[in-house]
Amino acid sequence: MKFYTRNETRKINVGGVVIGGGSPVSAQSMTNTDTRDWKATVKQIKELEEAGCEIVRVSLPDMEAAQNVCAIKKNIKIPLVADIHFDYRIALEAIRQGVDKLRINPGNIGGKDRVEAVVKEAKAANIPIRIGVNAGSLQSVRGLSGSDGNSARAQGLVKAAMEHIEILESLKFYDIAVSLKASNIAATVEAYKIFAGKRNYPLHLGITESGSIFSGTIKSSAGLGIMLYEGLGDTIRISLTANPVEEVKAAYLLLQSLELRSAGVEIISCPTCSRTEVDLIKIVSQLENEVSKMKSLKKLKTPLKIALMGCVVNGPGEAKDADFGIAGGKNTGALFKNGKIIGRLDPKDWVKKLVEMIKTEVKRLDS
Ligand code: SF4
User: Fold this and answer.
1) Closest Cα partner for 10 from 19, 26, 21?
2) Which of 281, 313, 318, 320 to mutate to test the pocket of ligand 1 (most atoms within 8 A of CB)?
3) pLDDT tens digits for 262-287?
4) pLDDT in tens, 139-169
5) Which of 91, 149, 182, 328 has a beta carbon 3.0–4.6 Å from 187's, enabling a disulfide?
6) Stated pTM of the model
């Protein structure tokens, strides 16, 4: 795998998953169930685990939700992060219940004694704290627009994060991750860049309130792509107004597109045109669907490249460069393996054959 020159950050350990210090950029998500219903929350986390989620966050709006942390933890495999606003007693309960990380801003939980109590217990339990600031809560930048507004948002985010961080540092607590999210890409990118010049805590990247599956994935990928390409970011969440499983799929595809992680299979397919001689849109969608069900793919450190091309004009070139590929012709397709034609296939058999070949290759690489 190719890694960009990554910004050097401290390492923190979240229930066995290391963030920062050059560790692989991890994919996170957050449940949208009512955490008071621990069974529904566990069910959703299991779906997220299947999709490859490496760290999951739940919000704890009250003590009843916090008291469910232990039951949730017992039934899941990935580290659990508790999202808490304002009430330090909920943080203390989450720690007692065995949570792996807190997302809490110490400046928002009241007097020093409360912060000290949370920090003391977090230190004893050896769990990190994420400082997460959002532009939406910055009063000073309300109504500002244009590049000046974005710059003010970025500065405001960093200032707010530093205030929270300095509280933790004054208590000699350094197991910190930081997020500085705005719904505007320019403001978010600038904030992370300014922050990276001030402290080396690992960065949790995200564009907040980015939108639905389609628009949110594009917006998040544009913003996170800039930062990841420049070496910033140790863990990511693509926030979507959708089933959180979609966030995990999008996170892996983004990381894979930047060659930072593998989602197992990279499908290369042509956009189709008047030369297309097969129903390529349907075939690619069927293959994507089949691939999404193959759990063992996450083991592949380098993704298998599968090319699906609609004709013999540009098709053979891409198909040859892929691990496996098919270049379509009239009612047929030339099947390539590692650059060589190994047969011809009726389009109705393409997906079945490629799935077979992927499974065989995964077994071979795994043995
Ligand atoms: S590969 Fe062939 S069918 Fe696909 S877009 Fe290119 S020219 Fe058109």
Assistant:
1) 21
2) 313
3) 889 999 999 999 999 899 999 999 99
4) 776 666 777 788 999 999 999 999 999 999 9
5) 182
6) 0.92
